[in-house]
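Q: Got a minute? One more chain.
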Amino acid sequence: MHIHILGICGTFMGSMAVLAKELGHHVTGSDANVYPPMSTQLEAQGIELTQGYDPSQLDPAPDLVVIGNAMSRGNPAVEYVLNKGLPYVSGPQWLADHVLQGRWVLAVAGTHGKTTTSSMLAWVLEHAGMSPGFLIGGVPQNFSVSARLGDTPFFVIEADEYDSAFFDKRSKFVHYRPRTAILNNLEFDHADIFPDLPAIERQFHHLVRTIPSEGLVIHPTTEPALQRVIDMGCWTPVQTTGAGGQWQVKLHSEDGSKFEVMFEGVSQGVVEWDMTGQHNVANALATLAAARHVGVVPSMGIAALSAFKSVKRRMEKVAEVRGITIYDDFAHHPTAIATTLDGLRKRIGDAPLIAIIEPRSNSMKLGAHRDGLPESVVDADQVIWYAPANLGWDLAGTAALCTVPSIVSDSLEGIIERVKSQAQPGTHVVIMSNGGFGGLHGKLAEALK
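A: Always. Here it is, folded:
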């Protein structure tokens, strides 16, 4: 079957394309922005990519068009599909029908940490010899691919609350029907499609409604929004993580790189790994709880986590030039920015730390998170905010509220010059964006030489 995917370079759609190819379909796709790591992964899989949405890419007509949720009415390719009556479906629906049917689905939902936690979970199952299938919104370095079918019943999926398509406004995750569900945390996000936090809580409740009574829901004790979701109705056993929960930790190092895992008051072993930050410790606890549900004993899970290599673009060290270390990170919400910088600060001590932040997500562009931004960067020594031309709010006003030195730049060249003038050997530079950021990482590394 020839499947053409509109919006193929999104992390979800690109991963779905890999699965369709593995099932034996002829897969092509198009996107407005074709950039790594998804574009390189797709090309390596032999999937043909087209830049832009000219209707000519749909002639001759494919057997099925999968329409990504970034596509809207008015898009020339979408209009062509509708006018010609071509068969079309959303990505989550296609996945539910052709991949997830009959599988033991382990879903990871939440505002933050979905990609990292689903990568951890897939790796723990892999390490235990369970060869899971997975679909992850990033490229886990233990696998070097973001999706695969797997040849056992187990399938790990990053379960996103974003909508499914322009014709299906339900959250993607209601299609997945998990048996094991991690609910990591819940804050207001996606201001382009949700009016407020209760609207997102309602979608999470819809997810909880689909989990069988023989399944398992895992969530931290510290998230009031998730407790409200459970209180709306839950027909499934629940395990909790963190303070007062069944799963707890004793930190052996402040930066989270070494900690002891406790289940129901009994030590299960010690994780010692390359990750930092309290958020990753929390992700690990949820992972161990989910893996135990499918039969992986905690000691085996702990051994796997100690060999976990994180995900591309999650505090990924991309260069070290003249003693200056450059990291690429996906953080695009104040909480994620704060926890990421906190983890790095605890690892590097008093070393100089420069954060470069692009407010690129839809919620950021709408200004939904701007009040939380000044507080999110307190662990940096200085911050460079990138103001793209289409930002609809006063970034300079927000930068002025920061307690650490902050400047706003409207060009990559300006950012590079600033870092060149400030960074000394021993400085750590974190570039935070959920997009390609114009290739800043490579350009900065080159300029620092």
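A: The chain has a mean pLDDT of 93.
Q: Perfect, thanks.
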